Amino acid sequence: MPRISHIFLQYTTCSCSHLWRIERSPPSYIFGTMHVSHERVWPYISKEIRQAFSSSTHVYAEFNPTDDTYWDDFLRCIVNRTRRVERSTNAATPGKIVDVHLMMEARRSNKTTGSLETPEYFCEKLFMVANSTTWTLAVDTIKSRVKNGTFGEPKMYEPEEFLKAYICSEFDDEYMENLWNTSTEFDGIVMRDENMSRRIHSLLKKSKKNRYFFAVGAGHMFGKREHLIVRLKKYGYKIT
């Protein structure tokens, strides 16, 4: 039986509703994504999230795979860094995770798209994964697949318990705190929360007419620290 059918049977009563509304006229929204294959979670995305995305005019994610300039800046940073540090390995083929799916759909719908984090951030995070030649080939492949709509689905490690918690909207501050204590994946999250909150605030100030839809990893909205939502509220936004 296909995996998606198994998931459907297991989580048929669940609905993913990790959505925050920024109260303004018109409203904008923050959607808590999960960096997994979109086919595993998209059937459970709530009607409210779908409507918020559909009504938006501007869609921003942590990075924008549809922007060639973004990839060019990323590669330039990779090349500069690998001149100092050379290391070869096999690069994994990027997949159409939820965030990428949203950005490609936004592009097909002629929405304005953009990124909340800089190419330099991802360069610093990923430059040791492969050498500059491998990254150049990978980025060329990404650009081509994004343009023709065939950005593939890799086999991804997706812990079932974590997936269920996301699909069934079971994430909360305590759940995420426990997760952070057992994983290094969230290293640097405080700085990322700060940088993305500044970026979102800047975009919201720039135009009060745009309907923004911000797609950000759900982990940035939970926890006992000053997470993304807390930081945005400090700018004076009412978020529900």
TrEMBL record:
Species: Rotaria magnacalcarata
PANTHER family membership: METALLOPROTEASE TIKI (PTHR31120), METALLOPROTEASE TIKI HOMOLOG (PTHR31120:SF6)
GO CC terms, sorted: plasma membrane
Membrane topology designation: Single-pass type I membrane protein
One record GO biological process: proteolysis
Lineage: Eukaryota, Metazoa, Spiralia, Gnathifera, Rotifera
Superkingdom of the organism of origin: Eukaryota
Compartmental location: Cell membrane; Membrane
Protein name per its UniProtKB record: Metalloprotease TIKI homolog
Needed cofactors: Co(2+); Mn(2+)
